């Protein structure tokens, strides 16, 4: 492109150059050859300047346009990757299982999240998901935290999010230091239980069983999560200040004896742990204290449907008939800002969570077992989900989940409300809308709508 432009330029230059020749012939009629020479030179310069100017004026917008177009195409390709556009499903789906594994000494962390700097995404699919949860204001970020036996997620706090989690494997001993009166609440969490760690409470987790632990976590932000680990804060504090604060025996020399390791300690497992730790006591706090942060979801009431089972860790307006530990947990969720309602959903083989939407919550879920087909009403987007996937449904968007595997489809789901979740299923809104309105809407005889039956049992998860 550039070479061609320059070619045109020099052609123009030459043709104007020839114009100077006839002028030369007038020379003999002129007394002062010197004057003429100067005049010619000046004229020549003027012509050159003019033609160059003309070339610049006529060509530069084109060059500019060409340059801009190239630039925009590249940018567009970076954003959309025209050769391989991102399917709309990635607004609702993150294959977290195959995302980047942040490997630390004591475990592995993976994310389905928003990044403020787009260059920090590893794939365009992750970016589509991250931008979707951010632009929808999902107030949720998903993560898995896998910890080896004896590994520890070291004491830390989150500036901008509550942490909710479902323990899928192992036994995890958790300590929480909430605001005054600064009593540590500690508890052994076992498989099928959920945790709620309010924003800014200091907490730690240690995998205490023989098996590797796996947490499915939901942080209640769709900005970037901001976290501070205690060791980082300590090493960032001037030694004399730390000595003055802690007043240890040995003074500042004791503080100076702390050596910051090269490796990130976020999830640590020192090889010489047995030398370091002689006596560990994993106690349990009083149950009414524990119940503010922990709930045995697996043992809670099962809501049974023809095609599956749902269990809840949530706030409800209903005050009677709930076990008192559940009432404490529900109250704690409701009293804090930006908490989530959690649930497990088991869909039996051939079962389907029928089309529905939520009035007051976004939905984010993690597939623990099985495989399903998900549909979202936006542009009739349909996609498969399988173990390790994270899905997201913005508030108000109708969606369904169908089990297409051989066994149960089992999911952990978080709904972004600290209030009672409000949901409307497709069969309910058909049955609740007057048949003459449906007739007018669908251009079908009124009687036809009597073919849609009502059932005694709730059909939230149904069978064919
Ligand atoms: C676009 O996608 C193709 C195929 O996945 C890949 O080879 C290419 O590098 C991508 N281009 C950009 C600019 O990301
Ligand atoms: C917690 O689990 C650990 C490891 O299984 C066990 O040693 C400890 O006694 C448990 N603590 C309580 C209070 O159940
Ligand atoms: C639906 O598809 C249309 C046309 O392809 C597009 O402009 C629109 O943004 C899509 N809507 C969503 C929510 O993806």
Automatic annotation (TrEMBL):
<feature type="domain" description="Cupin type-1">
    <location>
        <begin position="127"/>
        <end position="275"/>
    </location>
</feature>
<keyword id="KW-0812">Transmembrane</keyword>
<dbReference type="InterPro" id="IPR006045">
    <property type="entry name" value="Cupin_1"/>
</dbReference>
<dbReference type="GO" id="GO:0005794">
    <property type="term" value="C:Golgi apparatus"/>
</dbReference>
<feature type="domain" description="Cupin type-1">
    <location>
        <begin position="295"/>
        <end position="450"/>
    </location>
</feature>
<dbReference type="GO" id="GO:0005886">
    <property type="term" value="C:plasma membrane"/>
</dbReference>
<protein>
    <recommendedName>
        <fullName>Cupin type-1 domain-containing protein</fullName>
    </recommendedName>
</protein>
<keyword id="KW-1133">Transmembrane helix</keyword>
<dbReference type="Pfam" id="PF00190">
    <property type="entry name" value="Cupin_1"/>
</dbReference>
<keyword id="KW-0472">Membrane</keyword>
<dbReference type="InterPro" id="IPR011051">
    <property type="entry name" value="RmlC_Cupin_sf"/>
</dbReference>
<dbReference type="InterPro" id="IPR053297">
    <property type="entry name" value="Dynactin-associated"/>
</dbReference>
<dbReference type="InterPro" id="IPR014710">
    <property type="entry name" value="RmlC-like_jellyroll"/>
</dbReference>
<feature type="transmembrane region" description="Helical">
    <location>
        <begin position="35"/>
        <end position="59"/>
    </location>
</feature>
């Amino acid at each position: 492109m550039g070479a061609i432009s320059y070619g045109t330029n020099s052609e123009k230059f030459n043709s104007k150059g020839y114009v100077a020749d006839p002028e030369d012939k007038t020379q003999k009629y002129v007394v002062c050859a010197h004057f003429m020479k100067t005049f010619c030179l000046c004229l020549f310069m003027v012509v050159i300047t003019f033609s160059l100017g003309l070339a610049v004026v006529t060509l530069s917008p084109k060059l500019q346009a060409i340059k801009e177009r190239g630039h925009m195409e590249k940018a567009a390709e970076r954003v959309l990757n025209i050769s391989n556009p991102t399917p709309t499903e990635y607004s609702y789906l993150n294959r977290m299982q195959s995302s980047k594994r942040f490997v630390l000494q004591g475990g592995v962390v993976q994310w389905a999240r928003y990044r403020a700097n787009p260059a920090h995404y590893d794939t365009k699919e992750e970016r589509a998901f991250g931008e979707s949860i951010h632009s929808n204001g999902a107030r949720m970020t998903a993560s898995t935290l896998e910890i080896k036996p004896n590994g520890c997620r070291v004491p830390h706090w989150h500036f901008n999010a509550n942490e909710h989690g479902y323990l899928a494997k192992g036994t995890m001993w958790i300590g929480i230091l909430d605001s005054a009166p600064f009593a540590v609440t500690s508890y052994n969490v076992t498989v099928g239980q959920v945790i709620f760690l309010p924003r800014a409470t200091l907490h730690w987790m240690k995998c205490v069983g023989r098996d590797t632990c796996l947490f499915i976590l939901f942080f209640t932000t769709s900005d970037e999560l901001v976290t501070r680990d205690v060791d980082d804060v300590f090493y960032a504090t001037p030694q004399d200040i730390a000595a003055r604060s802690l007043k240890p025996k040995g003074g500042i020399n004791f503080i100076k004896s702390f050596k910051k390791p090269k490796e990130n300690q976020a999830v640590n497992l020192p090889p010489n742990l047995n030398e370091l730790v002689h006596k560990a006591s994993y106690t349990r706090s009083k149950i009414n204290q524990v119940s503010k942060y922990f709930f045995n979801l697996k043992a809670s009431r099962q809501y049974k449907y023809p095609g599956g089972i749902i269990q809840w860790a949530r706030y409800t307006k209903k005050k009677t008939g709930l076990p008192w530990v559940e009432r404490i947990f529900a109250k704690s969720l409701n009293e804090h800002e930006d908490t989530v309602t959690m649930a497990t959903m088991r869909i039996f083989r051939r079962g389907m969570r029928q089309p529905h939407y939520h009035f007051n919550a976004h939905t984010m879920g993690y597939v623990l077992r099985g495989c399903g087909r998900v549909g979202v009403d936006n542009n009739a987007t349909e996609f498969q989900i399988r173990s390790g996937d994270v899905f997201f449904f913005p508030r108000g968007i109708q969606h369904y989940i169908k089990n297409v595997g051989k066994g149960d489809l089992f999911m952990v789901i978080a709904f972004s409300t600290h209030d009672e979740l409000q949901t409307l299923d497709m069969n309910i809104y058909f049955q609740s809308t007057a048949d003459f309105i449906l007739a007018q809407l669908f251009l079908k005889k009124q009687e036809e709508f009597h073919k849609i039956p009502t059932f005694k049992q709730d059909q939230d998860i149904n069978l064919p």
